[in-house]
Each structure stands twice: as C-alpha cells, then as structure tokens.
Amino acid sequence: MSEPTASRRKAALVFIFLVVLIDVLAFGLIIPVLPHLVEEFTGSTATAALWIGVFGTVFAAIQFLSSPIQGALSDRYGRRPVILLSCLGLGIDFVIMALAPTLWWLLLARVFSGVFSASFTTANAYVADITPPEQRAKSYGLIGAAFGVGFTIGPVLGGWLGEVDLRLPFWFAAGLALLNFCYGLFVLPESLAPASRAKRFDWSAARPHAAITLIGRYPGIVGLAAVVFIANLAHYVYPSVFVLFADVRYGWGPWQVGWVLFLVGVCSVIVNVAVVGRTVKALGERRALIFGLACGVAGFVVYAFAPQGWIFLLGLPVSALWAIAAPASQALITRQVDVDMQGRIQGALMSLVSVAGILAPIAFASVFGLFISERAPVEFPGAPWMLAALLLAVAVGIAWRYAPKAEKIAAVTDPG
C-alpha cells in the first residue's frame, strides 16, 4: 500500500471522526437514564448508587482485558475489521440493554459494552497509520473533538428521550451504532498495509499484563505512559462525584447538571478543533503537554474552592485547555513506536486507562463521602477536585522530567 495522499488522509480522518463520534454519542445518550433504570430495578436510590459504582468498575475491568486484545488483533488483521466488529457488537448490545428485564441482565450487557467499546484503541492506531508524525497531535485533536461533540449532544438528547421512556435512549443508541456499522462497511478504508502487519497473532502479547510490560520495551514512552495513566485517573473525578457535588455544593438538579455538561463539551470541542493544532505548532509537543496539564491543575483548583456556581463555571474554559495534553502525549508516543506495534501500544495504554477507571471511582467517592460527613476534619465538598489537582501536578512533574525534547525524538532507536 502506497503512502496515502493528503486528500485520502483527510477523507479517512473524516471517516474515523464519524465512527468515533457516533460511538461516543451512543454512549452519551444513556448517561442520564442508566442510573434511573438501575433505580427502577433496585427500588432504592442508595442501592442504585452502589450498583452504578459496580457497573463502572466492571466496565473498566472488561476494557482492561479487552483493549490489548483488540489492539493486537488490529495489528495482525488490520484496523477496519476490528472497528466494524466493535460497531456491530455495540449495536446488538444496546438492544439487549433496552430489553433487559432484570438488573443482572443489564449488568451482563454492560460487560459486553466493555468488550466492544475498546474500539477506541483501534481508532487511535488508525490515526497513527494515516497521519505523518508531525501532524498527529492535530489529528488526535480532531478525534478529541469527536468525543467532545458526542458527550455534548448525547446527554442532552438522552435526557430528552428519557423523559418519554427510560428505555428509548437505548433503542436510539442501538440505531446509531448499527448505522455506524453500515457506514463503515461501505466507506471506511483499511489503514494498515498487509506488509506492515504483525506476522502472527500472539496471545501472550495480548494479555493485559504482557501488554503493559510491552511499554517497558520502549523506555522513551514509559514516562509518557505514566502521564497518561495519572491524567486519566484525575479525569475520572467528573463521572465519580460531579452530580453529587453539584447538588451538595450549589443545589443543582439534573437540568442544571445537564447544561453544565453541555458547556463542558462545547469548551472541549473548541479547544480540540481550534486550539490544539495551533498550540502544538507554537509550543512543540512537549511544552504543549506540560501547558495542558498545568491548565487542568488550575481548573480543578477553581472547582474545589468555588463558593458559588458561577465561579465554578469560570473554571470550565481553564480546565478545557487540559485537552491539549492528550493529543500532544499521543503524538509523542506514536513517534517512538514501530508501525506494526501501534495497535498493541495503544491497547496497552487503554489498559492503563481502564485500570484508572477501576481505581478512581472508589477513591474519589470515598474522599467526597468523608469530607461531607460528620467524620470530616473540615467540611470540604471540593476535596475530590483538590485530589485530582494534586494528581495532575504530579503528572506535570513527570512530563517535565521524561517527555522527550524535539531534538531527541529522532535519536530514539527501536528496541528490536
């Protein structure tokens, strides 16, 4: 397969943008209704909250197991079939969730969601396949924009559909995922040339432990992988405590929370579309990474101490600049990895993200519960945001120490 032309690269990026957008939109649709559906099954808000935590942990654990397998499969057989299978699987899974007659049926469906949603691993590898190294940060910013658009529109639309029927968003999400499959089946091109594929599928390399160990074979990305892990650990503060924090601190209900999430998504889209490329070009990938992480620290500090809701909102555009860090780190990592290893490395990184998803909800919820309880040394609902800020501050230090400078990237040799 010859090097893709600029027009073919642009078309392929549009395809993968839409694939990711529809997947994220489908997941965003069920955010406002899944807890209420669980509440219907349990009959108790407190019990439902416990089960939602279980759902989140199980989902992340399954992603931890599935991501390296999908990455290895895409390295061996190509990106296109793995992405298509994921879209089809998600469509069927949302149908199962829409029909779920019991809580356990719903939990089983979430297990399958964890398996098929690991396609984001392959999407990242796809971008690395079709984009020159110097343009990858901007391209990953486009994929970040797909996440932003999906999570901006999805919850608002899901909340509106959920007012009609709690299960209607699941049917709508199923339709989107199956439409995504049909779209990709006809228009999504393969990005990985047969000559660049792994010679065989290695089950030992697809195991999560082995996949993470694989990162150690590339010393230049170990520090960056640590940054990815810590940043995602901090990011889980949003789904872990935001709704409860907003209620306790500002008295915001579901309507207000939905619109705040809408604003978060809008800010994310603006940064990913209009700011990431320019910032990386102006600062370089390493300094853009550090700048983005530092903005995340500042935004979380505002959230932690904001005494009123309007002050909390002032932190949104500051925190949104954190989005610069992810594409910058991805670009730095992909520059130092062989083409036939991109899928496995992305799978290993997604496994780290999944580990963060397993650990973070318990950590942030526990801190929040402690600092609003009678046992609190001081009443401080913003404590989880401060914990997230401290985590990102650690990530800034690691990035400063280990993110390679531009002149050193070219000198990195393959581990063989």
Automatic annotation (TrEMBL):
InterPro entries, per database record: MFS, MFS_dom, MFS_trans_sf, Tet-R_TetA/multi-R_MdtG-like
PROSITE patterns: MFS (PS50850)
Gene3D superfamilies tied to this protein: MFS general substrate transporter like domains (1.20.1250.20)
Keywords per UniProt: Membrane, Transmembrane, Transmembrane helix, Transport
Protein localization: Membrane
Domain Major facilitator superfamily (MFS) profile, residue spans: 12-407
Membrane-protein topology: Multi-pass membrane protein
Parts of the chain that traverse the membrane: 12-35, 41-62, 82-101, 107-128, 140-162, 168-189, 210-237, 257-276, 288-306, 312-333, 345-372, 384-403
GO molecular function: transmembrane transporter activity
Domain of life: Bacteria
GO CC terms of this entry: membrane
Record's protein name: TCR/Tet family MFS transporter
Record organism: Luteimonas marina
